[in-house]
Amino acid sequence: MKVRQNISAEYAKDLLLDNKPLIDFYISGILDIVDFDKNDKIIRIENCFVESFKSESVEFLTKIEFANSEFKKCTFSFAYFSGGLNIEKCIFYDYLDFQCGGHNSISNAFMIKNSIFNEFVNFLDCIYNGPVEISDNVFKKGTNLLGNKCQSYKVSFDVLPCIENNKGKIDLNGEGGLKMNLIDMT
Fold first, then answer.
1. Closest to 82 in 3D by CA, of 105, 110, 115, 56
2. How many angstroms separate the CA atoms of 152 and 162, rounded?
3. Which of 14, 124, 128, 152 is the most buried (most CB within 10 A)?
4. What mean pLDDT is predicted for residues 87-104?
5. Please, which residues bridge with residue 54 across strands?
């Protein structure tokens, strides 16, 4: 395992604001990028360990790229990936929330490949307008990616997705035991 330089989440955010990738870092604290909404900042995290990544209610105009990294906590709830998303060879240790998000454009793919998810991955009420590829992943506690059938909040795809060679249940209902729904469905 490569030795990583330890940096604070605040310093990591400053690097991203300067359009610099985060490579070979151990990022301490909460890397909160909610104020990146609708800007053209490049977010690339590679060979990093991230204690906490928070990007709720953000519309990403550029592609988000995570490669060969580990995330203790991460959330993308209500995030729109207009510029696309590419997660490859990553490990997520905690519940991962994508709910009420998606919205990639027809020219920008949403891709998750060769990654491991130790807890439930929540795709409740996501809408994908462009290409989606979710392949060769391990969902240890499952996901509702293809679940919640016959519900108004099931995942919808405008383009036929490529979902293949994943291990674990990908058609679960609900939100993986989440104690409190973030959306009131009554």
1. 105
2. 22
3. 124
4. 96
5. 32, 75
Mean of the pLDDT values across residues 8-28? 97
186: tokens are 């009554």
> Helix, strand, coil proportions of the chain in percent (round to 5)?
5, 35, 55
CA distance 141 to 153: 20
- Please name which of 66, 62, 67, 99 lies closest in space to residue 82, comparing C-alpha atoms: 62
Phi, psi (rounded to 5 degrees) for 40: -105, 25
Q: How many CB atoms lie within 10 A of CB 145?
A: 26
Q: What is the mean pLDDT of residues 28-37?
A: 93
Q: Which amino acid is at 183?
A: I
Whether the model clears a pTM of 0.90, i.e. scores above it, the answer is yes
Encoding tokens for residue 51?
């204690």
